[in-house]
Structures are given as C-alpha cells and as structure tokens.
Design brief:
Blueprint (H helix, E strand, L loop, with lengths): L1 H22 L13 E3 L6 E3 L3 E6 L16 E4 L14 E11 L9 E5 L2 E2 L1 E6 L2 E5 L15 E6 L3 E10 L12 E2 L4 E4 H18 L1 H23 L4 H16 L14 H7 L1 H18 L6 H23 L10 H16 L4 H9 L6 H24 L2 H4 L3 H6 L3 E3 L2 E3 L1 H45 L10 E8 L7 E7 L5 E8 L3 H18 L6 H12 L8 E8 L4 E7 L5 E2 L2 E2 L18 E5 L5 E5 L1 H4 L10 H8 L4 H12 L4 E8 L14 E2 L2
Parallel strand pairs: 1-5, 16-26
Antiparallel strand pairs: 2-13, 3-4, 3-5, 5-11, 6-10, 6-13, 7-12, 8-9, 8-11, 14-15, 16-25, 17-18, 18-19, 19-20, 20-23, 21-22, 21-24, 24-25
Length: about 675
Amino acid sequence: MLPRRRVLNALCSIALLISCAAAIPAQTSTSSPAPPLVVEGIGRGTVALDGQWQFHLGDDLAWANPSFDDSGWEQIDVSKPWGAQGHWAYSGHAWYRRHIEIKDEPNGAGNVALYVPLASCTYEVYWNGRFIGRSTPLPGNNAQEQPPPAIFQLGKPGNGVLAFRAYSPPLDTSSPGDAAGLIGVPRVGSFDAIGNLAISERVTQVRSGLLVVAQVLVYGQLFLLGAVIWLRNRNQKLLFWMVAFLFSAAFWAFQDPVLFPWTETNILAALTTGAPPHSLEDISVWYLLLYFFDLDRYPALVRWTRFLAWITLVFAILDCVVYYIPSLDTHVRLFQVLDVVFTVGFSLPGIFPLVLIALAFRKHMDLSRRLVAIAAFLSDMYFVVAHTAEQGERFTRWTLYNTMTRPLFTVDGVHVSMQAILSMLLACAIVFAVYRYMVEQGQRQAALQQEFHNARAVQQVLIPEAFPHVPGFALDSIYQPAGEVGGDFFQILAIPNGGVLAIIGDVSGKGMPAAMTVSLLVGTVRTLAHFTQSPGAILAAMNQRMLGRSQGGFTTCLALRADADGKLTIANAGHIAPYLAGQELPLENSLPLGLAAETPYAESLFQLAPGQQLTLLTDGIVEAREKTGALFGFERTAAISSQPASQIAKTAALFGQDDDITVLTLTRESVESPTASPLPVPSFAL
C-alpha cells in the first residue's frame, strides 16, 4: 500500500505545481514598466528612443495621462510592427507609452523636437497628456497606411510620458498580418539636429527610389512626344494606345508612398495613382497587342477585349472608392467583402493578355513585335504571380511577394527591382515597335502617294484638253477629283455627219488600277470611233475588252450620239441616265461592262430641241454626302440638272463631296444663231 500512496502524493504535488505555474502571468503579456529612458546630449545631435515600450490594444484617451498606471501593459520593441510581436493581423487602435527624462544641456538646448520615421499606421502624439500632433486624421478605412516621416515640437527638456495613439485601418485582401504599427525608432533632439536628420533620411529615401523617379520622367516625356505625334495622326489607333500606356505607366509609378506620400491622402489621389492607372496600363497593352499582331481582324476577340477592359476599369475604380465610403468605417466585414469582390473583378482579367500573346506567337513576327510579345509576357506573368501571392498573405503566410518586390541590387544607393526592370523593358519594346510601325506606315504612305500622283497624271492625260468644234452644239464640262483617284472618264468626239459622239463612265475601284482601266477604255473608244458610231456597238465592243480584265470590278458607261438635227441615240451600261429639261431620260438599261460576255446594249432614241441642254454626270453628284450622312440624291440632282456644269459641280461639292465629280453638258444651239459660239475648253477644279 505504501508505494501506491507515495505515487498518489507525487501526482498531487505535480498537479499543484502545474496549477500554480498557470496562475503566474506570462512575461510577454504583462510586466513592470521599464525604468525611465534618460536622454542626454540632445544639444550635440539626436537620441534614439529605442528599446521596450509599454503597449496595449484598444483605445482610451485617458491613456495619454502621464499619471496613468501602465505597469500592467505588455512591452514590445518600437522598431518592429505589432503584427510581428504577437498581434498578427490586428487592426484598430493601439497605444504606445514610454517614460522619458530629457536632461537639459549646460548651455541650454532650447526646445526639443521629436522625429517619427516612416510608420505602418496613422498616429497621434501626446507629451505629458498634451496633444502634440498627428500624422493624418484617424480612424477610417481611408486612413493613410504609410504616413511619411514627421517632426513634432515637444517643448522644453524635462521629465514626462511620450504616448502614441496608433490606428491601423481594416485589413484588405493584400494586407499582410505583420506590417501594422510603428516600424521605425523615434528620435529626439534639437530642432536643427532633427531637421538635418529628416533631410538626410529623405535624401536616402529619394536616392533609393531614383529609378522610379527616372521612370516617371521618361514615361512623361515619351507621353508628351507621343501625344504631339498622335494629334497630327489621330487615325493611328496604335499610336493612341501607346500614348495611353505611357500616360498610365507614369501615374502608376507614383504609387510608391515613400517617394510620393501625397498619393494616399484623398480619393482623387488614390484614383489617379492606384488601381485605375494600373488597369488602364493593362488595357493599353491589350489593345497594343491587338493592333501589333493584326488580331483586330477577329471581331469576337475585339468584343472580348472591350468587355474585359470595361470590367477591369470599373472594378478598379470601385476598389479605390470603397476605402472612402464613410459608412463602411464601422462595417469592417462588409468593407472586406466588397474589397474581395472588387479586387477579384479587376485582377482576373489580368490573365487575358496571355491569350493575346499566345495567339500572337502563332503568327510570323518581326524582331520589334517579338520583343513586345516577350516583354508583355514577362511583365504580365510577374504581375499575375506577385499579385496572386500578395492576396491573402496574412492567411497563407507566404513570403513570395516580399521576395519578388525586394530590390535585386543597389547601385550607389539606388534600388533596382525586377518590377522596374520589366516595366522599362516593356516600355522600350513598345516605343521601339511603334517607331518601326510608324516608319513602315510612312514608307507605305509614300508609296501610295506616289501611286496617287502617277494615277492622277494618267487620269489627267486621258481627260480631253479641248473639245472638237461641232457646229450647232455648245459643249461644257467639269472634272472635279476627290482626295483619292477615282475612275471617272469621258470622251467627246466629232463624227462625219456633223454630229458628236459622247462617252461618259465610271470604273469601280480607286488608284492606279482604276486609272489603268480608264486608259484601256479610252483607247478602245478612240479606236472604235473610226469604225462605228453606234452607241450600242461601241458598248458591246468595250464590254468584250473588259471581260477578264476587271479583277472582280465593273464599269458603268453611257454612249451617246447626237446628230446635227438633234436626234439622240443613247445606249446605257448601268450608268446614271442623262437629264433633259430637269427630268431623267427613260433609257433601256443593261449590265455594266465586264460582267457578262453576251450582254446586249439596246439603243434609245430621243430628240434634243434647239436651246435644250442635255446633262450627263457621274455618281459623284448623286452620292455627295453631308456630315449627317444624308445623300444629295436624285431629286436634288434633277432640280439642278439644267444649270451650267460648273454650278452643278459646285453645289454638290458644297453639300459634301465624297467621290470624283464629272459633269458634261450638251446644248443644241438655236437655229437663229448665225454661227456657233466659241467652244470652251473643259475646266478642271483640282
């Protein structure tokens, strides 16, 4: 029995020791206050207020009172965030307190200044219960997460309690769990010493971010240059999206709160330097890829690009706005849910450029486009991986995001990160590719311009320089070309019986091909006129010449023979009928030239009385179009058809010329006229 009793006594003793140990408070949660920190030598420089500070979660303004007993508070290192010292993922209010004895210098140090370096929370400063100042207003979801370093005036040297009332806003999807709180050691000293310290640290910060500053300057200059070029070539979509990319990239570079602390101060700053500029940068890259690799030929892909662009931009704006809705300050859970929804909304489309890049690599690419594809792929993959690793970091405890955003190396104090390298690589690739594209476009434009001049020269040679003298008829014409060389043509030829043969037509197509077709037709007409004056036979022969040479096009043409007695014989191959006395002549119409081999061209007979004007024209009159899109039309054409040729052309041009205009008028002179009036030379309105 004795051994069993001894065992029971031993077990009871162990249980008693365990219960007593459990009743003893842990050293990390409560402790006696640290002895006052004695600060000496402030007249000779600055003194760090490092070491252990009293710390407590929650909020009570009574904690600023120097007589408050903080012996029950825990102690933490002021140089590390509270999330790394036992308060993972905590957001809200917390207080720091430190008892300080600032000794005056023999010669008098003057007023004492406090320097608070970069922090990961907003805060208010109290000295002996007196409010000294704050970083930014608190609390609220829009509280500045990383306020810049600040200087505060404490007054004369003496004993007291320095207290910080800190606040960390509700954590969003990208907030880590160990970042909130004071992260730099405060320092005290004379105003001169503190001022010099602040300048020195600011210089160090700016030097470390000089590459970011350089990015902003380079992007800004390229943006201004690109904008000027685009304003002169507004039809260049590729140039427009390059300008948009440079504009958004410059603003996105401003998102560094250390270099640009004003970027977190209000909703306007957040919208111009936060997620929206980054989304606009992504959208610009999408459209650049579309136009670089001719993917805009696929309507479905263009629609998807437009849809995803609106989705990512709208959700990016909402993701910024949600931080500045006052009613969400007290609804943390709702704020976090909305933040998740909006973040997912603008983040998921980030994988879309990978689809465009995959399609681009299936096409043959030159060096410049290949560089853009590679740079876009690397940049997008970096963002997707880093952004994914950043989301929910406080739950996964992943450190990949910190590793990816850490500087790769430092050059004379300048930090060089992977993100900066990839961003500059993408920008350079895009600018180089757009430059190459513009050079190629310029060469093509020069070739087209040369072709234009050649075609115009051919066309001018084929337009009659002077009309033949035809007794009994007054002839007038005007040829008014549009911006692009068209296929209008006409010929006036005298025939042996004292009459006139008139041919007018319009070749489908533009440029040199149309001019060469006109050359063929005019040569055919001049040859045929030596053998026949029958309009139907002439059109039939012209149709045979056009077969197999139209390359899918066609030619409308009207042939007219006016005899000395005013008899009109007209054959029509799909052309606009002539006008007589304000009315369109009812002709038998046939197919245009070059469409069918055995097309008959019937002839219609009319009589042109003395003093009457017959007006022949091309579709440049009828199809003149004003800015609203309305056509000049047949009714307006009929109403002005009795006017001189130059007036008809002028009226249509003022309405809105959209094609070459050709007007030919044939007026039978009155029998009382003893002699024919001098024949005018056809006018050219170039």
